[in-house]
Amino acid sequence: MTEIQQDQALAEAYDGITAVVDDLDDAHLQRATRCRGWLVADLLLHVLGDAQRALVALASPVDGPADVDDVSYWRGFPGGDDGAVRHAWWVRRSASAFDRPTGIARVWKETAPAAVRAAAAADPEGYVTTQGHVLRVPDLLATLTTEAVVHHLDLTPELPDAPPPGPLAVRVAVSTMDGLLSDDAVRPAGWDDTEFLLKATGRIPLSDRDRLELGEAAGWFPLLG
What we know:
The chain has about 220 residues and is mainly alpha-helical. The protein is about 55% helix and about 5% strand. The chain is built from eight helices and three strands. The chain has helices at about 5-20, 40-60, 80-95, 100-120, 135-155, 165-180, 195-200, 210-215, and strands at about 60, 125-130, 135. Strands 1-2-3 form a three-stranded antiparallel β-sheet. The longest helix has 21 residues, at about 100-120. It is globular, with a radius of gyration of 17 Å. The two termini are about 25 Å apart. About 35% of the residues are buried.
């Protein structure tokens, strides 16, 4: 994927989330998600944190070289550890501080477009720092897109009319999972992109047939927590 497409993919990913939450009322924003213990409003606040982190990173260029790329970045986030549990609880308490869930949606709709504009204006040859790592700008954008696409899918199990994430953004997320799967394994041919993303992130368990087709690689799942 070319570097100019990375900012377009992020725009598509964030626009997709906005399309999911744009017309939701307080009741719908309190529906369950695929993230254990999180309502739609909670998860939206988590993704809002990513958009805010993007603004800080993109406005704070650093010297290279990068120490991770858009795939190896994720190997530091296996999921399920004590830090993840603490963060989940922090998000729930922070979301509850809003007077109404729609307040979170309002801040998201103000912040996400700003992050997209910053991404479009960033030097694609530059480096930024986030989460204790140095990344090339396009790789940062790919990590943000991947997380947004996965969480877009997380938002929707109780929102049957929600639109799916856009195809360019999905391509970035799938490319990330392919990278984590490595060249030594191939995903089952029967999986479409959505099933791959949900199984690669542990949202849907592997079936017996999946395990048979994946062989030894089944033990690597979930690829991303």
